[in-house]
Amino acid sequence: MKNIAAEQLAAISRLFSSSVIHEMARKGKSPIFARLARESGLPSSMGMADPVFRLFELAFSMLKHEGFRHEYVYKTALTHKVLLGKHSLQTAAMLTEFRVGECKADLAILNGTATVYEIKSERDSLTRLDRQVRAYANVFARVYVIAADSHVDAVMDTVPDEVGILCLNRRHHISTLREAVDQPERTSPAAIFDSIRTDEARMILEAYGVSLPSVPNTELSRMLRSHFVQLEPCAAHDAMVRVLKRTRNLMPLSNLVAQLPPSLHTAALSLPLRKIDHSRLVSAVNTSLQDAMGWA
């Protein structure tokens, strides 16, 4: 593993990119996958009759090695251990790359509360960490940093005491070094409004009986915001959890997830895949490597 070339590692990592999964789902094949598979060198250690999903599983097993792990590996650990482990697609929702101010939250899970996870892998810098966790605290009641062993001490020194700290160890297990404090009262209705969709903000206000006048679309956002910022922080946060669990519901993806290898669960749950795309994606990952290498 230590002798793998940088170009091979880059290709292996990019196999799990949204462009590959989207292409498979939309077209039932992916020239990008074929090119990356060739650059990765992985087909040479497999049988050409093997299905594509076995190459994904092999690629992921390599990325799990310490030193090679990147963001997707951490997201997958959280998906399996938290979303699908502690919770389920029926009881919780997951957000990825969720915009909060000038930051993008790596992953958040909404269950009884809203919990955000900032990932700091071995390949990441901690330069923006303080700014990130402070931004997330305006929207999510619980904030965690999940880090590589090599970052743990520096993370401890950087983030406030109410921020939880998790570590992804060499065995791909998540250990809790410090629990996050659940503080919905310190969230900001203004920050929540700026992070969610207009229809979601309207649903939250209507749930609290706010009378919304009819206004032109050009004035709608400003009108909704003027009402939203008057909500109590806990009320805005708790309603956000309830509403987004409905609007970002992942249950329609449960059958698709059941037909994909574990290495692709996070990818499938993170992308806006149409129902008609599901069968094409399943067909693509079950294609033989010999046929798949002909996609490009």
Describe the SSE topology.
Elements: H1 6-14, H2 18-27, H3 31-40, H4 52-63, H5 71-86, E1 93-100, E2 103-110, E3 114-120, H6 129-136, E4 142-147, H7 152-158, E5 164-168, E6 174-178, H8 189-195, H9 198-207, H10 217-228, H11 233-247, H12 254-258, H13 265-270, H14 275-285, H15 289-292
Parallel strand pairs: 3-4, 4-5
Antiparallel strand pairs: 1-2, 2-3, 5-6
User: Which class of secondary structure composition applies to the elements?
Assistant: alpha/beta
Strand numbers in spatial order across the main sheet: 1-2-3-4-5-6
- The CATH architecture of the largest domain is 3-Layer(aba) Sandwich
| DSSP, total strands | 6
The total number of structural domains is 3
Number of helices: 15
Order of helices and strands: HHHHHEEEHEHEEHHHHHHHH
What is the helical fraction, as a range of percent? 40-55%
Mean pLDDT: 95
Strand content: 5-15%
Low-confidence stretches: none
CATH class wording of the largest domain: Alpha Beta
Q: Taking Cα atoms only, what radius of gyration do you get, to the nearest Å?
A: 21 Å
Broad shape? globular
CATH topology-level fold name of the largest domain: Trna Endonuclease, Chain: A, domain 1
| Biggest sheet layout | 6 strands, mixed
Q: State the end-to-end CA separation.
A: 27 Å
